Amino acid sequence: MQAAPKIAPFMPPRRILMGPGPSDVYPEVLLAQSRPTVGHLDPLFVAMMDELKSLLQYAFQTQNEMTLAVSAPGSAGMETCFVNLVEPGEKVVVCRNGVFGERMRQNVERCGGVAVVVDFPWGAPVDPDVVEGVLKLNPDAKFLAFVHAETSTGALSDAKTLCALAREHGCLSIVDAVTSLGGVELRVDEWGIDAIYSGSQKCLSCVPGLSPVSFSPRAVEKLKSRKTQVQSWFLDQTLVMGYWSGGGKRAYHHTAPVNALYALHESLRLLAEEGLENAWARHQNMHQLLKAGLEKLGLGFVVDEAYRLPQLNAVYIPEGVDDAAVRSSLLGRYNLEIGAGLGDLAGKAWRIGLMGYGARAENVALCLRALEEALA
Ligand SMILES: *Cc1c(COP(=O)(O)O)cnc(C)c1O
């Protein structure tokens, strides 16, 4: 008999999360998650799922019937879009201006697709003129994939123009909105986005582990006319929709993460209560406040002002400053987490998140005070 380990309950401290995600979770969301678990086919739960779907449609600004939350983090939302839509041999133009564009490329290749990669410098947005040229050179391309808000650098790309280009060239658009949803303007129907995925733990300020996804009728048509079977059973949307589709006919596919879905329901409800446009404005206002303070401290931004994400502020680490020491001092003294640089920016930049519930004046003030002290 193996001895039972004696382990105390895990009691995490209350950190202030100002990194690239997870973000500070709304207290109401943590409460919602602790409510009693019910069966995932319980009529009350099914009614909650219907509300959740309409809240997701509001957040995405879409009427898309195929709108749901994948029961896994943002990466699974990414994979959901690629495995359902891209068939072997199909060409996908993939824009790469940071870590997540590169992951899109890997997804395309794992689906047996042909990725035509268009590179942009780290910190720059995707340039629609360059993309247009590539689409013209590749008339057989079926998809255009790009990241709306590149969390690795803090750059915002022009999703509206890129999706219009995709349509003009007969492509479906696949858009990563993990960091953009709830933080900056995003209009799925108006901009003609075909497949989009997000994450619960960035500007929605929900607990991590869920990925909102939406497919346009054109994307659904592509899915239904596939010649090959979707290679992932779990992520196959034609099967998942048997559970998420409205009405009383929900069929078991997998056990929904019941309590996590309560949390998402609550975070989206809070977003709807605030109003999407107010939430976008709040992120911008908090960014301006943070920016003024960071500039006073002499910290320079990685991204040009015109393309800067309000919710992800990448700033260069000053010469001679110990990156890890500063971040661990913020965590130790202030319970404050900021993000390290990723990929090309590792060791060179910090990423300060102002996401969802975290985009508040007191967080900005604390972060500036803590950084000033750590740099002194
Ligand atoms: C965080 C993030 C992801 C991945 O989401 P996970 O929930 O960590 O799997 C994908 N794309 C972007 C732009 C992100 O910021």
Automatic annotation (TrEMBL):
EC main group: transferase
Pfam families attached to this UniProt entry: Aminotran_5 (PF00266)
Keyword Transferase: yes
Keywords linked to the UniProt accession: Pyridoxal phosphate, Transferase
Ranges in a coiled coil: none
EC identifiers of the protein: 2.-.-.-
Record flagged with keyword Transferase: yes
Cofactor: pyridoxal 5'-phosphate
Top-level taxonomic group: Bacteria
Single GO molecular function: transferase activity
CDD domains: AGAT_like (cd06451)
Residue ranges annotated for the Aminotransferase class V domain, each copy included: 37-341
PANTHER family in UniProt: ALANINE--GLYOXYLATE AMINOTRANSFERASE, AMINOTRANSFERASE CLASS V
Membership in a protein family: Belongs to the class-V pyridoxal-phosphate-dependent aminotransferase family.
Protein name: Purine catabolism protein PucG
Species the sequence originates in: Shewanella khirikhana
Gene: pucG
